[in-house]
What we know:
Chain A is mainly alpha-helical. Helices cover 70% and strands 3% of the residues of chain A.
Amino acid sequence: MKWIRIEARQEPDPLMRFGSPVLAVTLTVLAGLLVFAVLGKDPVEGFKVFFLNPLRDTYALSELFLKATPLMLCALGLAVGFQANVWNIGAEGQFIFGAIGATGVALYGGELGLANSPTLMLGLMMLAGAISGALYAAIPAWLRTHFHASEILVSLMLVYVANLFCSWLVFGPWMDPDGQNFPQTRSFDDAALLPTILEGTRLNLALPLALGLLLIGHVYLNHSYAGFKMRVAGGAEFAARYAGYSSRRMVWIGLLAGGATAGLAGMAEVAGPVGQLTDKIAAGYGFAAIIVAFVGRLNPFGIFLASVVMALFYIGGEQAQQYLSLPSAIAKVFQGLLLFFLLATDLFVNYRLRLGRSAHH
Amino acid sequence: MKQSRRTLLSALALTLTLPFASSAQAEEPVKAGFVYVSPIGDAGWTYQHDQGRLQMEKALAGKVTSRVVENVQEGPDAERVIREFATSGSKVVFATSFGYMNAMEKVSKQFPNVTFLHATGYKSGKNFGNYNARFYEGRYLTGVIAGKMSKSNILGYVGAFPIPEVLQGINAFAMGARSVNPKAEVRVIWVNSWYDPGKEREAAMTLIAQGADMVTHHTDSTATVQAAEEKGVYAFGYHSDMSKYGKKAHLTATTHQWGDFYTKTMQEVLAGTWKPTNPWGGIKDGMIKLAPLNPAIPKDVQTLVGDLEGKLKAGTFHPFTGPIVDQDGKEVVAKGKTLSDEELNKMSYYVQGVASKLPKK
C-alpha cells in the first residue's frame, strides 16, 4: 500500500524538460530564503542583497555579464560534446591553454609590428586562443579514439598539467621583469586588449562574440544534420552506429568544440579584465561551466540564461558578504542547492508522481 | 486660513531643524572595507589581518565600522569587490594580497576621495599606499632557536613560491641557525601553492623523513605544525600562533600583527593627515612578534633570543648583515654592510647554509 509512487513516463515530458531548471532555480531561491533566516538574517533583505543588488544599475549589469561571458563560452562548447555523450571535464585546462596561446601572441606580437594594428593583433590572439584550447582537447580525443582511454579522466587530469605549465611560464620565461618575481607576465599593450563596449565599464567585445557563437551553436545543434547526428549518438548509440554515423568523429567534434570555445574564453580573460597572464587565470570557469551546460539543458539559449544565473550567484555571494556579513561559502551553498534541485526535478522529466492508493494491490 | 498658516510655519520650523539633523549624521562612523584572498579561518595570513581589523574596530569603537569580503580571487573579481566598497561609502579599502595590486591602482584613480591600502605590493599613488612587514626578522630569531636545538642539524622548510619575500624568510632562517651552529643546513620543498594542506603535509613529512628535526613553513595552513606534532619533532609556526595545533611541537611562531597599523591608519584618515608612506615595519614597529616561547626551549636559548629581539627593537641589529655568501660561494654583501631594502626586494638566491637548489627558470 503506497500512497505516493514514482512511475516511469512513456516518453520524456517536454514541458518538464525545460520546466525543471526553472523549478530548480525557484526552489533554490526559496531554500536560499530559508538559509538566510536560519543564519539570523532578514530573508527579504537577504533576497534583495543577493539577487537584486547585482541587477541594480548598468554598471552592476555590466559586471554580471562580464562574469557570465566565460561561462557561456565554455558551456557552449561542452554542450556540443555532452549532446553526444562525450564527457569533456577539462574545459578548465583548455581555458588555460587558450589564455597561454593568446598571451604568446600578445607578448611577441609587438615585436612583429602588430602593436599598431589592434584588429590583426586581437584576431590572431583569438585564433591562437581557440586553436590552443582545441589542440589541448585533442589529446583526450586522440587517446579516446585510439586507445579507448576515458576522456573524462584524461581531460580532468590534463587540467593539473595545464595549471603547472602555466605556473612554469609565469614563474619562468614569461615572468614580468619588473614584477618583483611575482607570478605574472607583463601587462599587455593596448592593442592586445579587447575594446570595451560600454563606456565606464569592463564589459568588452567578448560578450557579443559569445552571443554570436551561441547563435551559431543553436543552428548547429538544433538545425543541422551534423547536430542531429550528435544528438542521435548521444541518445541511442546503437541507432547511430546502425545509421553509419562515425563515433570517432563525434568524439573529435565534441572535444575540439569544447576546447576551442574554452580556449577563446581564456583569450577573452587575458585580453579582457585581467590584461596579463597570471598563475590564477582560470578561476574555476571551466568547472562551473559543466553545471551551466546542464542547467541550460545543453541548449544555447538555456546556457545563456544559466550562465547569467550562475554569475548572479557569484556576485550575490560577494554582496552578501559585504552587506550581510555572511561568509564566502554562501555562494557555494547556492550553487550546490541549484545542482541538487536540478537533479531532483530532473527526475520528473522521465518519471511522474502518482498519488493515491496503488491500483494493483 | 489661520490653521493652514500654522502648518506652514511648523513645516518651516521643521526644515530649519533639518541641517542640525544632518550635522548629527556627519558623526556617523567612517566605513572601512577589507578584501581577503582566503577564508578567514582560525589561523594564517588572512586570519591575522582580520584580527588586526577587529583590534582596530575595538580601539576606534563608534568612529569606525568595517566590512569584509573573504576568499576573493586575485583576478577580475577583485576589481569589482574593491569598487563596490568604494561606491557604497567606504572611506578606506584595505586589500591584503599581492595580486590585487593592479585592480587597486585602477580603482584608486576612479575614486580620489577614498584611501586605498594594499598589502605587499610595490605600487602607490596619491590616495593609494602599500604596507608590508619584515617577516624575516622573526625568521632569523626562529633560525637561532632551530640551530641551537637541532640534533640532526637538518632544518626543514616548506615554501610556497620562490618570490623575494619567501626567500628572505628562508635565508634569514638559515643565517640565524648558522650564526649559532655552523653545521646546520636548511632543506626546502616548494609546494607551489599558498594554501594546500595536503601538499604541505606531504612536504613536511618528506623533510622529517630526510632527518629534519626542526620544520617550519611559508604557506597558509597549519599542516606543517601538525605533521611535526605527529612525528615528534619540533616546528615553528608562521603568520599565527599555531601552538594549539602542536602542543609539544610548536616552539614559537613568527606572527604578523596588523592591528596597530590599521588603527593608526584609520586615525590618520579620520584626522585627514594620511599620506602614502608605504611602511615596511618589523619587530621594532610591533608588526612582527614571536609567539610565546615553548618551555621546551632551554633557558640560555630563550635569553639569547630575547637579547637579539631587544637589539632588533633598538634598531642596532639587521639580520642581513654581511658577510653574506650565496650558495655558489659568491659574496653578496661585504662584511659590516647590510642589504638595502631594494636589494631585499630583489632577492633571488639562497645563502650558504641552504642545502636545496632553487628551481631553475
